[in-house]
Amino acid sequence: MAATATTKDATGTVLSAIILILVAVLAFSIRLFSVIKYESVIHEFDPYFNYRVTQYLSKNGVYDFWNWFDDRTWYPLGRVIGGTVYPGLTLTAGTMWWIFNSLNIPLSVETVCVFTAPIFSANAAWATYLLTKEVKGIGAGLTAAALIAMVPSYISRSVAGSYDNEAVAIFALVFTFYLYIKTLNTGSLFYATLNALAYFYMVCSWGGYTFIINLIPMHVLLCIITGRYSSRLYIAYAPLVVLGTLLAALVPVVGFNAVMTSEHFGSFLVFIILNVVALGHYIKRTVSAKMFKVAITLVISFGMVVSVALAAILVASVAASPTKGWSGRSLSLLDPTYASKYIPIIASVSEHQPPTWPSYFMDINVLAFLVPAGIIACFLPLSDASSFLVLYIVTSVYFSGVMVRLMLVLAPAACILSGIALSEAFAVLTRSIKFKQDKSEVLMDESNNGSKTSQPEKDKEIVRERPSKKSRRMEKENVEKVLEKKEVKQWSLLLPVEASAVGILLLIVLGSFYVVHCVWAAAEAYSAPSIVLSSHTPEGVHVFDDFREAYAWLSHNTDIDDKVASWWDYGYQTTAMANRTVIVDNNTWNNTHIATVGTAMSSPERQAWEIFQSLDVKYVFVVFGGLVGYPSDDINKFLWMVRIGGGVFPHIKEPDYLRDGQYRIDSQATPTMLNSLMYKLSYYRFTEADGKGFDRVRRTEIGKKYFKLTHFEEVFTTHHWMVRIYKLKPPKNRLRGKNKKRSKSSSKGGKSSSWKKQEKRNPWH
Amino acid sequence: MAVLRLIAALLMLSPILSLAFSPENPTNQRILVLLDDLAIKSSHSIFFKSLTDRGYNLDFKLADDPKLSLQRYGQYLYDGLIIFAPSAERLGGALDLPAVLDFVDSGHDLILAADTTTSDLIRDIAAECGVDFDEDPEALVIDHTSYAISKTDTGHTLIVSDNVIDSKVILGEKKLEAPVLFQGIAHSLNPANSLVLKVLSASPSAYSANPKAEISNPPALIGSSISLVSVVQGRNNARIVISGSLDLFSNKFMKSAVKTFGSSVEHGKSGNEQFVSELSKWVFHERGHLKAVNVQHHKIGETVEPATYRITDYLEYSVEIFEWTGKDWKPYVADDVQVQFYMMSPYVLKTLSHNNKGLYSTSFQVPDVYGVFQFKIEYRRLGYTSLSLSKQIPVRPFRHNEYERFIISAYPYYGGAFSMMAGFFIFGLVFLYHK
């Protein structure tokens, strides 16, 4: 009996190993659509910065990276990159590059960066397997791993080329949770230390680490309140807080924030409570029941006074700070309307907006329907570990409802719970088929057979429970009881064969829907690199490569020290691809600076010229989609520029740009709007392009069609007019007198009139 | 930096220009002289001779010569332009208003003279440079108090002025020996325009009107707001002289004796020759042309220029400034050259000390602010070309290992940490092994 169990176990192990490898292959390869459909290129905005930092790291080493003062962004302030960046991703990719190179595999930094995200999504799948296995066994683990390997929400952030913090952070997040649950199940100090290290990696990787440092304390608190305190809980939590906080403070970007901001206070509070509870348990064990009662009333009455005083001090000190000690992004988590009310720069980012219902279906698809089943499965029976999962899903659902970006945190939770649900459902359905057959064989003596037939099953149960049982020596009886209960339940959960078969079939169909949707999402929805656009026309695919065209123009035709101004969205790309100094970029650390650029963009030409001149700007570019219908261009972002600029410089007023509350650029637009630099730079000579000046994004004819630029000159416009680069004219060499030029002379000298009207034709069009 | 580069580029660009400021071939400059009438060549020969004597090659052309051209194959053929063709309604060949303005805008010099009859073209050129001639085509400058006593001039239009600008750079070291004779039209300048300067202005009793007609309205231009001769220095340091009188340059005026009405002194010779030749020296950059070279900065005690400074570093900054004398570069000496250490606003502003050999230097401490700074020199003085240098230099914060390792005031905390560790160790021992 034991021998067969071992072989069966071994086969199972091999099988699950193969499945895990296949899951990893799936996770990796489903993310390669972007490379196959487009090319091996870094995507979007932030990844370009990370790529540039990685290049610097691989060229100059860790210490120079740590101390890197970047003088090419945020001119003239500069940015201390080493102290303001989460170094986890960069260090990871840099290490991978270094390993490859020391193995004489000459990969470029770019290649490594492009494929970091797919590699880490495979890792994340494995981590998910481990976490789910720790809670609900191998079957659920494998299902969850397969689900997370292709969940669209995660794919959207980790396709090849999407070289962003989230790529490694999701792995780190799930792995930290796994180690926490593992510690909780085993009570091993070894895993607790590993847990702190994993947490450290997470802190290095992503600002989302605050989710961990709030979720785990919440779970600990939940365990304490529900009377589930054990020494395992203490071991799982105390080292994490102490070591984790120390380690987190080592990351330059976090530093003293680890002990000074409100986001971390919860963990310390829970740490104190945990210690008090631990002390209480210790005292309870050492003193008699009567003494304990006396002691507890004493402590509680004394403790109440002290804690009330402490709370008052805390509240007062927190209330004294203007943001109540919370950073803007965190506040917008708690109060979803906070950002849009007070911080336009946060609200202006589309991924900080609340998601719509369809985006849930798009991003997690059928998982949304499986999650409730998973939650129910977690309550049958409720263990420390499964209660953690329930807490995780509940909080992440809330957070995802606040910011689209945090859908990403929801995805692993949804996958795990759906994995559990699917696995439990399959288990029930297959078992009922299997035992139905057994039952028909031995119908007579049911009571004996009952226990007999379930024997292998029970063996398996015991085998599976073994590792955790080791730790649960004290609660051995408890476990036994659970097992017996399970057995009873197994009998009660038997379904008719036909129903089970249909159920299995339906589940498979459901699964295939999910797979089809995920592959579609990976191939069509989330693979676009956003710097290269494509559209399908009857003649075939049309590629818009205007961004790189513009950046290449900048890097080839401008001086190395020239300053280029644009809206901050394009800052990272400009520094990375054009290698030119920018005024503002996607790291929005200085609101005033961004507001200055926003003000310049919303001012009339002359004022804008003065602002740019004071910043030593030589070139300004705008992104314009009106000719080809590219909707996320600067005109559509313009109101945010006005708002952000107006937030600091009150002479810019949003109503001046709106006609009866409506944002329009047609003939009804306000004069302020039509005279703003953004309008002028976007629509300069636009009428020449199609004759009417019809904007295909706004679907209207523009309001002011013929105008000249006095302080800017157009130097380059890309093929589809998506990027238009202007140069600031130098101050005039001479100042004209008051006398008007006589019409006589200009009509006389034929040439003298033609030189001014000479039409500048765009030679690239 | 950009300006330096611009100057360098200008110097390199045209081989003709490069001759302009090199000591080997100091004044081998080609100047195109446009005339209404070739008679002017002889009637103004003293002025032209003073130029040829100083080494300029003059190329005389009629203003309506159909082969006129300032540039060939994108290169300018001339370094300077003298337009002594006040009545030319249009210029010949490829020359027109924008061509003349482009010539100036590319850093070349111009002398423009108007006269009693001045065409719209000349007026337009002047207006583009910031000088507005009196709109009335018949108007002349009339002065009934400070006019030169002469037999022919009855309308008091031959006036005398010694009201010149007080600048040794523009008019030379020597004081004007005799007043300047002037007969021509008045012009005015916009006071807000910082690029034009009145060099010769009329006396307070002058006014601009048609001498042949009765004055029905008060004249538009009166008194010392009337400018007789003005100079313009463009932002690119191109220099322009605009005179309301062509006769100012003529042999007749230069040689004639001057006796101002109401004055007992009779000067045997008018101040015109001195005035005109000194002015031509200035306009052709024989005076007041500065260059700044060899900008250097380094930490104190080092000689190599670093790519970046750290906050609170001590540094030395030096620059050499020279002035062109017409033959070679001689050190420029002034006590008012200042350098700014600038990031959006000057953090340090220091006057440079010099060694009388053109080397200006100073040293200061980098402020405790990091960012991309500039060494900036903005030197603008009357008559001199403007110097505008900026050199970008990043200032970085401390590296992680440049902070103090141990801080004295933190010793209690160190003590606390270590005693805590020791205490916990002992407590552990006692707790575990004391029964």
TrEMBL record, chain A:
<feature type="transmembrane region" description="Helical">
    <location>
        <begin position="493"/>
        <end position="516"/>
    </location>
</feature>
<feature type="transmembrane region" description="Helical">
    <location>
        <begin position="265"/>
        <end position="283"/>
    </location>
</feature>
<keyword id="KW-1133">Transmembrane helix</keyword>
<comment type="pathway">
    <text>Protein modification; protein glycosylation.</text>
</comment>
<keyword id="KW-0328">Glycosyltransferase</keyword>
<feature type="domain" description="STT3/PglB/AglB core">
    <location>
        <begin position="561"/>
        <end position="620"/>
    </location>
</feature>
<feature type="region of interest" description="Disordered">
    <location>
        <begin position="732"/>
        <end position="765"/>
    </location>
</feature>
<feature type="compositionally biased region" description="Basic residues">
    <location>
        <begin position="732"/>
        <end position="745"/>
    </location>
</feature>
<protein>
    <recommendedName>
        <fullName>dolichyl-diphosphooligosaccharide--protein glycotransferase</fullName>
        <ecNumber>2.4.99.18</ecNumber>
    </recommendedName>
</protein>
<feature type="transmembrane region" description="Helical">
    <location>
        <begin position="198"/>
        <end position="222"/>
    </location>
</feature>
<dbReference type="Pfam" id="PF21436">
    <property type="entry name" value="STT3-PglB_core"/>
</dbReference>
<feature type="transmembrane region" description="Helical">
    <location>
        <begin position="234"/>
        <end position="259"/>
    </location>
</feature>
<feature type="compositionally biased region" description="Basic and acidic residues">
    <location>
        <begin position="756"/>
        <end position="765"/>
    </location>
</feature>
<feature type="region of interest" description="Disordered">
    <location>
        <begin position="444"/>
        <end position="476"/>
    </location>
</feature>
<feature type="compositionally biased region" description="Basic and acidic residues">
    <location>
        <begin position="455"/>
        <end position="476"/>
    </location>
</feature>
<feature type="transmembrane region" description="Helical">
    <location>
        <begin position="112"/>
        <end position="131"/>
    </location>
</feature>
<keyword id="KW-0479">Metal-binding</keyword>
<keyword id="KW-0808">Transferase</keyword>
<keyword id="KW-0256">Endoplasmic reticulum</keyword>
<feature type="compositionally biased region" description="Low complexity">
    <location>
        <begin position="746"/>
        <end position="755"/>
    </location>
</feature>
<dbReference type="InterPro" id="IPR048999">
    <property type="entry name" value="STT3-PglB_core"/>
</dbReference>
<comment type="similarity">
    <text>Belongs to the STT3 family.</text>
</comment>
Automatic annotation (TrEMBL), chain B:
<dbReference type="Pfam" id="PF03345">
    <property type="entry name" value="OST48_N"/>
</dbReference>
<dbReference type="Pfam" id="PF23358">
    <property type="entry name" value="OST48_MD"/>
</dbReference>
<dbReference type="InterPro" id="IPR055459">
    <property type="entry name" value="OST48_MD"/>
</dbReference>
<protein>
    <recommendedName>
        <fullName>Dolichyl-diphosphooligosaccharide--protein glycosyltransferase 48 kDa subunit</fullName>
    </recommendedName>
</protein>
<feature type="domain" description="OST48 N-terminal">
    <location>
        <begin position="30"/>
        <end position="283"/>
    </location>
</feature>
<keyword id="KW-0732">Signal</keyword>
<dbReference type="GO" id="GO:0018279">
    <property type="term" value="P:protein N-linked glycosylation via asparagine"/>
</dbReference>
<dbReference type="InterPro" id="IPR005013">
    <property type="entry name" value="DDOST_48_kDa_subunit"/>
</dbReference>
<feature type="domain" description="OST48 middle">
    <location>
        <begin position="297"/>
        <end position="435"/>
    </location>
</feature>
<keyword id="KW-0812">Transmembrane</keyword>
<keyword id="KW-0256">Endoplasmic reticulum</keyword>
<feature type="transmembrane region" description="Helical">
    <location>
        <begin position="411"/>
        <end position="433"/>
    </location>
</feature>
<dbReference type="InterPro" id="IPR055457">
    <property type="entry name" value="OST48_N"/>
</dbReference>
<comment type="function">
    <text>Subunit of the oligosaccharyl transferase (OST) complex that catalyzes the initial transfer of a defined glycan (Glc(3)Man(9)GlcNAc(2) in eukaryotes) from the lipid carrier dolichol-pyrophosphate to an asparagine residue within an Asn-X-Ser/Thr consensus motif in nascent polypeptide chains, the first step in protein N-glycosylation. N-glycosylation occurs cotranslationally and the complex associates with the Sec61 complex at the channel-forming translocon complex that mediates protein translocation across the endoplasmic reticulum (ER).</text>
</comment>
<comment type="similarity">
    <text>Belongs to the DDOST 48 kDa subunit family.</text>
</comment>
<keyword id="KW-0472">Membrane</keyword>
<dbReference type="GO" id="GO:0008250">
    <property type="term" value="C:oligosaccharyltransferase complex"/>
</dbReference>
<comment type="subunit">
    <text>Component of the oligosaccharyltransferase (OST) complex.</text>
</comment>
<comment type="pathway">
    <text>Protein modification; protein glycosylation.</text>
</comment>
<feature type="signal peptide">
    <location>
        <begin position="1"/>
        <end position="20"/>
    </location>
</feature>
<keyword id="KW-1133">Transmembrane helix</keyword>
